[in-house]
Give the backbone structure.
Amino acid sequence: MSDKKPERRDFLFTASYAVGAVGVAAVVWPLVDQMNPDASVKALASTEVDVSSLKPGNTITVLWRGKPVFIRRRTQKEIAEARSVKMEDLIHPEKDEDRAKNPEWLVMLGVCTHLGCVPLNDKGDYDGWFCPCHGSHYDTSGRIRKGPAPWNMEVPKYEFVNANTIKIG
Amino acid sequence: MSDHEYTPKSRAGKWFNDRLPLLTLANHLTDYPTPKNLNYWWTFGGILTFCLITQIVTGLTLAMHYIAHADMAFESVEHIMRDVNYGWLIRYIHANGASMFFLAVYIHIFRSLFYGSYKSPREIIWIIGIIIYLLMMAAAFMGYVLPWGQMSFWGATVITNLFSAIPFVGEGIVTWLWGGYSVDNPTLTRFFTLHYLIPFLILGLVVLHIWALHVPGNNNPVGIDIKKPSKDTVPFHPYIVIKDGFALLMFMIVFAFFVFYAPNILGHADNYIEANPLVTPAHIVPEWYLLPFYAILRSVPDKLLGVVAMLSAILILAVLPWLDTSKIRSAVFRPLYKQFYWILVADVLILGYMGAMPAEGLYLLIARVATAYYFLHFLVILPVLGLKERTIPLPLSITEPVLGGSPNMAMAKKKESKLE
């Protein structure tokens, strides 16, 4: 077989397999892609929150895309604490100035970057958040300081529509 | 397969069998020569078949009343418990049946480890078994999500987030699994679909598992090859059928105890609170049968490596036939292996206990040592032991130790040759 010259039939076999493979891939893709977020899920992209009732030191949790978002009005002490941390002490170095454009307001996904639990407020060794599932400690800027989580809690895209309303997404 | 030809007695039977040899198959299963020294640890194959059928039957009936929707799932389960005729019974059998299934499968796996049933020529039976075990874990996990309680929701969140540890594509895979940006209704409906599908995949694999078993025949407590059929074997029916049946009855007593007297003892109270994406329960724990692997996951301080360690702990079993270098199957004739076997059993039980405890302080330390030992057992102890261990001489047949055997090897051999 191996020392035989390729003939027309071999070409036909190869061409048929190739066309068959393309056909199978074309059929499989819709079956795989149907599991991705659908149009109605994607449509729920933004949500507006009234934060006028928050006093310094208060946190509210709102639901955005099925996930909790922490909105915290930080105290001066917390801001000072978050801004005084040296970058080399951080597991995932990010400046607090970049995470909270308006230092009084910290807005972030309340989802532990380890395995997705919701961390608890005002707990842990760094006065910020503590995840009860596997023991990750976050500081007053929501940055990971200790434990198995690899990253800081994510800051979503958000903006102040007016002085009292935050639009997330 | 059957070593002899079979012809049905009746003309109709012959006519049918010539066209579809089902009667030949039935005859093979009835006459199937089985080692006569099988002990009660060998009855768990039959018990597991019973468990699978129980789960399928109760699952089908539950699916007639359950509604796979995030807004209605929790209530529909309560509806089954309160309104549906015997709904409480069917659900408790199904929920506790999962635990009984795992109890039986762990005994079945550890029996195989003790008597070396995974060794040549039974590697394929073993590997099919490991695939069945993996599918069982997937089915159990997805089934636990369906009542849409707090443990359902957060268990699903934590387990699906394991995939986010994969570099680069992890987040995309998790979104794809969820069908959204968090565990939500699309996740629930697909889990229901897969939970319905997997038992039938398992059923198909069980057929292959038994088919592969019937090629070399059963291993046995002595672990030596036997000639079949011979004086070392008995036909499957009635000898093994009645023994399996008796063991099954004993097992059903335990099963019934849980269903009727402690139906919620193996579950978590948190799962009777409806899923709430804003609050994580203080202490998330998987079901007891997944705890050893959960302990391994948590004992590694790195996210990706933790997931890798947990998966390796299961997949390492698939290559066990090649990690164990000893040609002697049964631990009865391996004095050192026998001790390491019991240390491994203790190690897995310790891991299970640590998995249920918070991951901190002494618990974490013990879990780390136990994790290291688990891998040490398979990767170092087993390969080295097979080469170094001084084993006890094997008997010539499984009848020899029963009859006291002859100390005179030549005589025993002569007896053997007469039997042939």
Notes: The beta strands of chain B are 33-35, 233-235. The mean pLDDT of chain B is 92.
